[in-house]
Write a structure and sequence with these properties.
heterodimer, A: 184 residues, mainly beta, Lipocalin, elongated, B: 945 residues, alpha+beta, Methylamine Dehydrogenase, Chain H, Immunoglobulin-like, Heat Shock Protein 90, seven-stranded antiparallel sheet
Amino acid sequence: MLLAPLVLLPLPILRAQDGGLLQVVRSQVSFVSDAPLEQIQASLRTAKGVMDPDARTFAIQVPVSDFDGFNSPLQREHFNENYLESAVHPKAVFKGRVIESLDLRSIGTSVVRAKGTFSLHGVERERIIECRIAVGPDGVRVTSTFPVLLEDHAIRVPRVVQRKVAPEATVTVDLLFRPKSAGP
Amino acid sequence: MRRLWPVLAFLWACPGWGQYPFTRSFELQEGMRRPRAEVLAVAPDGLLWLGGPDGLFRTDGELTQAALPDPMPPVTALSSDEHGVLAALGNGVVLHVHGFFHDTVVVRPDFLRSPVTSLLRHPDGTVWVGTYGAGVHWMRGSTRGWSTTAKGLSDDHVNALGRLPDGRVVVATDAGVDVLDPDGGIRTHYSQAEGLPDNLVLSLHCDEQGTIWGGTDRGGVFSIDAQGDVGGPLARDTSWAFGPVIRLWVDQAFAWVATDRHGLLTLDLKDRSEWYRSMEHAEGRVTDLVRCNDGAIWWCSGKERLHRSDPDVLVVGDHEQVDLKGISALATSSDGRVHFAMGDRVYTHAIAFADSAAFTSRRTALKPSTAVVTLSAEAKGEVWVGTMGDGVHRLSPTGGDFHLTERDGLVNDHVLRIRRAGDALWMATLGGAGRWSPSEGFTRIPVPGGGFLYDILPLDDGGAIVASDGAGLLRVRPGTTGTPLVGQDAGAGPRSYYSLCQGDDGTVWALGPGTGLCQVTGERVRCVGSDHPVLRGEPLGVAPFRSGVAVFTDQGLLLYEPASGHFLDLGASCGLQGVDGELNTMARDAQGALWLATDRGLIRIRPELVERSRAAKAGILGWTWGLEPLPLVDGMRLAHDQDLLTIQFFVPPGADPQAVRFEHRLVGYDNAVRTTRERQVTYARLIPGRYRFEVRPAATDGGAAHPWTGFSFTIQRPWWRRPWALVLWLAVLTALLFAFIRLREERIRLRDRLEKDRVRFQLEALRSQVNPHFLFNSFNTLIELIEEEPRKAVGHVEQLSTFFRNILQVRERELIPVEEELRLLATYFDLEKHRFGARIALLVNVDEQARRHRVVPLTLQLLVENALKHNVATAAEPLTVSVEATVRELVVRNPLRPRDVGHRSTGYGLESIRQRYTALTDRPVQVLAGAGVFEVRIPLIDPEP
């Protein structure tokens, strides 16, 4: 009952949806590779994305070379040059459609499945990824954690470092969407 | 601990989950391989097909066989059709596999990237292929079609296909359900907007009524009826806590769901209270399930085994955390409840598939170290409890409990059986029989010689039958002395009987150790099956079941049908081998189902099971000639040398495939019925003829025979032994014989003619020799000589004599050398010379070589005689006859000066020479007349070797 007045607050969002697209205004994308001998973490804040709530379509784009926070600068170089080949495949893209019907009009949290093509290292994969959508006064916040199998995306790990790089990386995404017209 | 919370919450939410259809597991083994089963299909003939990463296999539960030659690509989808199965392989090929054969339906490289998830064969022959990423494809003969998002399909990722009775095809995608026309046009789309619980639809089942049942990723199971109305959750408990529904099957009685994490779930559609999960065989992930013709569900989980869940056999292993494996007594009541005792508690269980609300328990106030051994229950929830040492208790839901012991007049506190009849309670105790009613109190029933009584069965006439320890069966009546029942075992001394029951027709049945199953008719007892392995076990109970009586011993469960006299091993029919229980732990409920309290828990067997276990019919898998598979066509014709035949057969997989024995026979071979547990038979050196192979599952325990399944074939005779060939042979033989006879006749005739010729020639020669002219001339010459030169005359006569002797000598010979012939000619010519003098001359010019050759005797003489006879010879112009030899001929030549008068030529001479030579050589005798010269060329025959 205490929350009831808050429902009236996000007026900009309601208006924005009538107009259409939402876009990412703030993002945090990180991954963790938890191998027996080493744990590697990196993150970036430069992901871009748009979402059309009416058509339930979306597209998220992550510039791979922006990942930072590795255990050493050399590791980051290896990541970009040997594994992800960022010069050839600069972006990781996930675009598709949300399986559930979206209701972004009311404040609240729901878990939806985003289905689409996940492209990394130039290899496309069909994925269904569960996301938590929180509609709040300041926008629509989408968070998700999902695994990425390196083998699925033709990322080859040399045998010598196999105990230092896990075959599966856990990616965490935190995106805040706001209406495109409402942005600065 | 935090991780455990959801599990505990789940346990809390499902109090009845210890109940499940009886499930049996079958290990898969094919040679050295252990194939993993991910997808299943059941062919119309009942054979089970399974596919997975190791390829395609078929099984009848006992024998598993690879269905394709090695190496087999993985199988991603399977679907049965009227002849066999369709299988989608991981290499982009869709095959139609039937018997030992397979044909390619379609090969598409894009199925490699978008694997085939589902297959469907329309009765009109169209094959539908659902792919994960490339939409739906269909092919009907050479026409192809497809539907993708570009053509209006809701999504390219197809999870399942289904077919409605009107021919429409249902497609489950990641975005809902599409209903397609048979030609691929999109008719209707269902999604969350139309009321589906989830857009991600993973599984489909379409039933005969046109209802579409769908299983979703998060929202459980939904239905869309023929009118297009979307129905909500099936169970009354609407929340879905079991994750993705991988496959589902819905029939009249049950819904079966294969889940990703919670194993196989079952919902009884009659009460729809909640989903039950098979715990004993818990495989978290169930990848596929199919319903076999016998109503059982077969399922797999991507592992090396299959599971069979039988909806007609319900097992309750535990209930509300109460382990139901130590039940000591069991009774049913007419209101459909089942009552059982464990320890000092009595439980009541509703008859429905499960209803936890009706599951109650009551503690009885038992004396220490006594136990409940018998129960009798009534509709209002009133339960009578017979104990070992503590008399009889009555438990009443309305609080009217009371207790009867020896102090109250009970014959003995050790009560082995109580039964209600009207308002009376009949008791069999260790101290005799008794009867109690609220109005009359206790009545003692005298039993002659019987102290220990196991059972008492009240009858309609006010009496009862008791089963005693050592005194047999007795008919008793309150107030009078009982009479022992006599039967075929009377001579073998009194016996013990443990259990009694009364069939629906009033027949009384009794069972004791070693007695067999005994039927009481009047005062007589007639027993059957005392040597049956199940009846030899320790008896636990008898109960009426269907039209017969069920027998429960520690060796198994048996159904006896008195009408046919057949036994059916019920335990084997449902896969319940080796169950054990306590005395008095079998009862039949108001719906006709049998309840058993066993060491595995409470088991309910529905009467439908009996029909299904009897419907088994064998199928023919295929047959080979040597190793070469033959098409399975009835009336097939084989060549004469296709006489090494192996025929493989099977029965649709049932509860106990290992126990299946086959009977087979080859009609036309020896007609003998052979029994085997092999799944194949080989016949070698079959002679040409018509055969019919027939096979059936062997009837167990003298049960009714199953129908035969079979096919006919003919081994043809070799072509040279077929009728037309025989006719041909006969004709050739006749012709040969005819030719031989003709040839022989010809030869005989030729010989006759030659003989005649020779004779005629000789005659001619002789005649010429005894020619009167010749003789006249010779004699005239002789007369002249005798007068003028007598000495010369003697020479002449000698010459004449030599001449005739020579003729006589050579007459019989076929051929003589030219040398000799010339000598003969010289003799003759000398004789003629005497007559003609210088008017004739003979010139012989034959070389040595030619002289060795041969001629017909007297030929030259004949020719010379002819020449002298027909030509003019004068002193001025002497007639010179020359005889010359060429390489191969003898030429007799004389100038042609024919005489005008005198001898007329008969022509015999030349003609007979010709005929003689025709028989001897193919070279002709040539006669050349003309240019003043007459010339005869006689072929020379090669000298004698």
